[in-house]
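HUMAN: I'm a chemist; might I ask for a sequence paired with its structure tokens?

ASSISTANT:
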Amino acid sequence: MKPLRPYLKLKHLIWPGLFLILMGLTAGLVAGTWGPIPAGLLSAGIGLLVVWLGSQASGFQGLWGKRSTQAGTNAVLATLAVLAIFLLTNFLATRYNTRLDLTENRLFTLAPQSQEVVKSLEDPVKVWIFDLAPNPADRDLLENYRRQNPDGFAYEYVDPQVQPGLAERFGVQNFGEVYVEKGDSRSDASGNRRQLVQTISPSQRLSERRLTTALVKITSDRQTKVYFLQGHGERELNPGQGGLSQALTSLTDETFQAEPLNLANTAEIPADAAVIVVAGPQRPLLAEEITRLKDFQTRKGGLLLLVDPQANPELDDLLEGWGVAFSDRILVDPAAGRDGAVTIITEYGPHPITDGLNNGITFFPLARPLELGEVEGVEMTPLLFTNARTQAQQIGEDGQLQLDPEAPEGNLVLGAAFSRRLSNAPAPSPSPDAEEPPVQDEVRMVAIGNSTFATNGLIDQQLNRDLFLNAIGWLSQEADPTFSVRAAEPTNRRVLFSPSQQIALILASLVFLPLAGLALAVGVWWRRR
């Protein structure tokens, strides 16, 4: 009988080595610490594996020469490389968290206004959602708010059946009610402010616009009055086509108070008027009304003039001294065909009203250009520029467009902002300790050759709402106005099929396509048989 070779005795060391390593890992994971016992077991197991590898060196030399070993080794290395890349990617994603929103309206990214509002929260604000189960989309939206200001914004889901006392304190009537609360939520002290945001449901999720509006309202005490002039064919404030009810709702959401103003029945303009809007007058204003508006421009305040083509409200006396006049022409884009009378604006002047619009779109059906001139003491900034091919054509007495090849063409001005310092207010001397110079009270005015862009159905399109609200905010001369783009609502992309279309779609997907695939397979088999 031949004696056993040494390597035959050592080849079995792999099994106790693996066993000791498994024991060491188990002991360390169960104990939660890697003390002497787990470390000793791991060391012993690794030592046995090293001895085993040394005893098999001669066998490995022939093994490495085989093609199957090389292929297997490549597969193992490729697998290890994929795992390493996967682990490194997760590590980098966890450490450097970046979100990319590719939706059309950037639904998963807070609008600039929402970011400004939540970042400027001075007192803690908490959102309470009284619902049975959190919705992932709503939670993602709330997390976006919290990331902007972790110390000032918080939210909590509450089951009204589990915490009926808390639901009773808020006056919850239905599941899905969302409240925003400022102050100490544990008491009902006078410093607390609470407001209902909306009632969510499976078909109506939490709205960023409504939540941001609620944050603005609960953190602001301002009650700025905006008056809309009436009595000369101006845009009505009621719902319906051509009205301004949606504009008034937007102003209310921004904590403004909007009311009608008829100067024929009023001895003077109310003292609390911060902004007066003249939207689409069709008939001339009375001389007394012009005088009252001119008197309004001698104190701190703002005037928004929205004048449509083919209307002559006779505002020359009011505009005297401002260096602006409404042209009697109409803007036309010859390259746009039938839609040429709709002026699309993508170029804006540098001004707080338009800074947040960037290269976005605002559009104005049937607009007229402005004629601008420099006036000493008046700071004038063009806001809205047409494209280079836009023309300012004349309208005949019969109401027909007269195409004149010599008409003004190019980057015409559709809207502009004006301001001048009050003559009876001395310039304040800045304090040496102040970081910024004090703001001087001004009289301000914005003139736009169109009022249709702010009417019902159109104010929600593109950035029309933002232009209108930014103009009101700048004219109001509030201490902390918000000039930015508001939150966008989801675009409805659902496709509705008629019953016949549904039947055709079912037959095509479940009958015709499988039969076509079967016929193709039979044809291939027939040719190759």
